[in-house]
Amino acid sequence: MPYVTHSEAERSEMLDAVGVSDPDELFDIPDPVRFDGDYGIEAHSERETRAAVEGILEESADLTEFLGGGHYEHYVPSVVDHLSLRGEFLTSYTQYQPEVTQGFLQALFEFQSLVVELTGLGVANCSMYDRSTALGEAVLLADRVRATDGDTVLVPADLPDRVRSVLENYTDGPGITVESYPTSGGTVDVDGLAERIDGDTSMVYAATPNARGVLEPDLAAVGDLADDNDALFCVGSDAVALALLEPPAAYGADVVVGDAGVLGLPTTYGMGLGLFACREDFLRQVPGRLVGAGEDTAGNRAYTLTLQTREQHIRRERATSNICTNQAWLALRAAIHAAWLGPDGLVDLAEESVTGVAEACERIDALDGFEAPVYDGHHFREALVDTAAPAADVVDHCRHAGLAVRTVEDAGEERLAVCVTDANRDRVDDLLDALAGYGGGA
Amino acid sequence: MSQEQHERPEGAADDADGESEAPHQQARWYDGDRYEPLLNEKSTDTVAVESSLPDDLTRDELTLPDLAEPEVTRHYTRLSQMNYGIDSGPIPLGSCTMKYNPAFTEDVAAHPGNRVHPLRSDDDKQGILRLLYELQETLATVGGMDAVTLQPPAGAAGEFTGIQVAKAYHEANGEGERSEVIVPESAHGTNFASAAMAGYDVVELPSNEDGRVEVSALEAAAGEETALLMLTNPNTLGLFERDIAEIAEIVHDAGGLLYYDGANLNSLLGKARPGDMGFDIMHFNLHKTFATPHGGGGPGQGPIGVNADLAPFLPTPQVREVDGDYEAYEPEHSIGRVHEFTGNWLVLVKAYAYILRHGDAGLERISETAVLNANYLAERIEYEVPYGPFHHEFVASADEDAADVAKAMLDQGVHPPTTKWPEIVDEALMTEPTETESKARLDDLAAAFDAVAATDPEDLAATPTETTARRIDQADAARNPRLSWHALE
Q1: Which residues of B touch A248 (CB under 8 A)?
Q2: pTM summary value
Q3: Chain B environment of A396 (Cβ under 8 Å)
Q4: Which residues is B395 bridged to in the sheet?
Q5: Quick one: which of A21, A183, A232, B230 has the fewest CB in 10 Å?
Q6: Which class would CATH give B105-357?
Q7: A406/B contact by beta carbon, under 8 A
Q8: What is the rounded distance in angstroms from the CA atom of residue B192 to the CA atom of residue B189?
Q9: Is A31 at the interface with chain B, CB within 8 A?
Q10: Rounded Cα–Cα distance for residues A172 and B164 (Å)
Q11: Please, which residues have CB within 8 angstroms of residue B209's CB and are 6 or more apart in sequence?
């Protein structure tokens, strides 16, 4: 029987010790709720199981992806797998006994330090589930810390539906209303926001790069509007973009959320590593886990989970969040990837995310029947493309060439979205061939 | 490396014979520092950021560690050696269920067929959708539920999702005014936090003298305000709630729903199903029941199962089979999403492989062995173990500070149990050996408990001495928070 190590003799000895002849006698379950059926699942050898599961996985199409839209792939160096898969990391538990988990605690401390450097904010936690749940937690934090009442959070009109839906579940309990402010020309409409914001606004959210892949040109103005209305200003971004961009704290961000899985995580059907950082004065209201440095009794530096009086296992219904299991192993992977890149490598990777999409757009724009990018401005990883032919037809055509691109509804039009990173940049020629082969579209 | 550097630093305690005989001791470092420098202390560089972007969009400089791959590798290798995992030895943390994770599931997770973007069309991700569908259906069978969503990225996220589904259901039935969630005092802290997060008032239910739900207290608590009772069965004392049928009737008669916290489900596989006990909603902790490595705190995955009345409220997307093809769809009254995509895909694929490997007989053997191991260990240790009979875990009562006991157990080379919780037991040592520990390892654990029990309580405070770090002043770390290397500068 797999992974159960008792010999029959040992099993008998143990049964004797507890005074039963069959383990079934140990089940204190009343007959009416006993289960006497079976699940109908056949057991398989390890070899058979691998073959079966891998056979299912192979049923997905073999495509080169230019998809983006909230899940981005960069090349992950081999060393990330080799180190993070060491059993002492992979099979360890939450660090409730810090004296035997210094290694993981230090790695998480280093991850937090990376996020502090990237955001410019004083405090970072050691992970959220993904960018959408991190945004949900940011709104709940704003609700707790804001000096005056206010129960509206303002988000850009182009916030992806998937993120907004998560946010609406998070805001349902405390009765916070999610409302949109307008965008124009592919970026925040600052005047439109000024008309929407008022004393009832607890938080304003803006992302850079935004949902159209555009780097927001004037988030300082958004921060000023939030400040003038005593609302928190939350910026959405990611761990690669922030290596290049001005740190959000420098233009007034109170909270930064987003995705750190862009480091260390290949495309795995949307797994995430939520990033969360905030001003130091919100320290005791931060959701999730925090690792702190301290000393042991020998006077050496040591790390420990800290400020646990915020957490659900102590504060129960008064906890800052319900988070128990988080994304610690993915934070380890992100930290290793960042360490491998170093500051130059990280900046270069980010810059490649600017030049790659810009070059692709320039080439697509030169094709008959395509205009790219739809919006002026500097793009990061992705951009929208106007097509003379129906965008869905272009997607189908690309698919036959082994390439996955997608459409988005934008300003009442169906448009093509194209995402270029170091992971697929060497296939941009194929994408261009496929688009050109569409024969001018219409 | 010289012989001198192999010698122990002054003050490192020896066993009586001068040799450490603990069977699964973590690596220790005797080069004087006893800690690994931070990456930034090894080599840091500040680089000027140059970009094709305009200056007003970009930062001026970036300061980060700057090491070549060999030094990065040595840093993390050393950190790993300063860390204890289930591959090093048992982690009998009650209610956390840390069991051995088979190696092959990592290979399954590394298969290129997992490298699929979530925004592909359904046609282009049939492998992913088929696995999601089959796992959805399998979990429904195991739980005795009618429908399952795989989306929640952790157990607590599953609780929150289940509560949102219950709330949507009550609202659809014109019962949106129900404002209370009842939770037994022995419940996991996440139950309280998740209910509060969803906007409910939490009503705490006391335990009776045999450690189970006090039925008369439930009768008094349940009423027209009750939206939900959250319960784990067996409970966190390892005790089966034998009155479950009566409990379900009370809650249902009051118009409330019954929620099952699946953290302890590994002790029921093949023996009982939450749906058959009257539970309307449940979550699965895939990383506990079906094993996936817990990665130092996550990722996990917390699918929820519901009965047919609640199925239309599940998050979107769900997966269904139509003529041999698989497609995503939105349930009629869906609450929307609780994760941007589908949570932690790799945990799902590992859990699926684990279930397929075991089959019915293997899954039943899991629960039988988990329960046998818990009862055997409870029998073997010197500390008092109140209540019983036990399922997957038991809670012993230490004669001294349970936290001290834990630290002293570290010096015995084993990971200690959960301490000081549940508070129903004085100085609790909440112990769950799981099914993957051999008799020899259980005997080691018992010996470690007994060695500590036989130690003068005054000596316990000086422990641990055999670990990477000595005891850490957690109160000081919380009083003076230093949460990044910037704070140490």
Answers
A1: none
A2: 0.96
A3: none
A4: B430
A5: A21
A6: alpha beta
A7: yes
A8: 6
A9: no
A10: 9
A11: none
